[in-house]
Amino acid sequence: MHNADSTEVIDLANHVDTSRPTMDQRHRIIGAEDSAPTDPGICGKILIGCAWALVVVTFPFSLFVCFKVVQEYERAVIFRLGRLVSGGAKGPGIFFILPCIDNYARVDLRTRTYDVPPQEILTKDSVTVSVDAVVYYRVCNATISVANVANAHQSTRLLAQTTLRNVLGTRPLHEILSDRDAISKTMQVLLDEATESWGIKVERVEIKDVRLPVQLQRAMAAEAEAAREARAKVIAAEGEQKASRALREASEVISDSPAALQLRYLQTLNTISAEKNSTIVFPLPIDIISFFTRPREPTNVPPKESS
Description:
CATH class of the domain at 111-212: Alpha Beta
Structural class: alpha+beta
Order of helices and strands: HHHEEEEEEEHHHHEHHH
Organism: Sipha flava (yellow sugarcane aphid)
CATH architecture of the domain at 111-212: 2-Layer Sandwich
Number of strands: 8
Oligomer: single chain
GO cellular component, one term: plasma membrane
Keywords: Membrane, Transmembrane, Transmembrane helix
Transmembrane segments: 46-70
Domain Band: 65-224
Shape: rod-shaped
C-alpha cells in the first residue's frame, strides 16, 4: 500500500501541465516581444509594497481575499499591474493574489461542444443545401487563450461556421453526401491550425445532417427509381435468355432419347396428383398427329409400260 502511494506521488510530481507556457512559448503571446522585462519599475514596487502592508495590517482577515481556489479542470491566469505573473497559469488548488493590484481570469479546460447552426451552402455543382455540424474543442493553453484573444470560445464558434461554408462550397453534392468522414477531418485540421495561436485545441468535427430541397429529393428519387427499373428489365431479359438456352438444350436431349419425354410426362403427372386435382389433362403427342397428317401415296397407280 505504501509503494502504491509513493508511485502516485512520483507521477504527480512528474506531471507537466500543458496549460502553463514555458519560456519558449512566451513569444506566442501577442505583444510579449515588445514588452520590457518583468521589472515593475519604481511605481510598481511601491504599489506592491503597499499591497503587502495591507495584507499584514488586515491579517488574518486578508486571507479570505488573498487565497483563491480553482478546481482540477480549471486554471487561473493572474495579471499583476496589468502584466502576466511569471510561472504561467495557476492551479489546480489554492493560489495567492495580492489585493488591489492582482487580477485573475478563471479558464475552464474541459471539452466543450458547439452545435453549428444550419448553414445554407451553394455546392460546387450549384445545388443549395442546408448543413449543420458539431465541433468538440477545449482550451489547451490557458495563458494564450486569455492574452491573445478577447473571447476564445466565441471566436472558435464563428470560425467553425465560416470553415464549414468554405469547405463544403468546394465540394460537389455527391461528395458531401457520401464522403462525410473526409470532410470532417479536413475541417478539423483547418480549425486546429487556425486556433492554435488562441490556445484552443479542436478535437473533433462531425457533420450532422445534410438537408436537400424537396424538389431535388423528388428528382433524385425518380432517378433512382428509373435506374432500378432499368436494372430489373436487364436482369429479366438475361434470365429469359438463359432460360431459352436451357430449354433448347433440354429439347436436344429429349430428341436424342424419346424415353426422356415419357419420363418427363410421368413426373408432370406426379406433380399434378400431389396437388389433389380432380382433373388431369393427357397431352396428345405431336408424333401421332404428324402420322395422320402426312400425305399418303396412291396404291392403285397402274404400272408404266416399257417401250
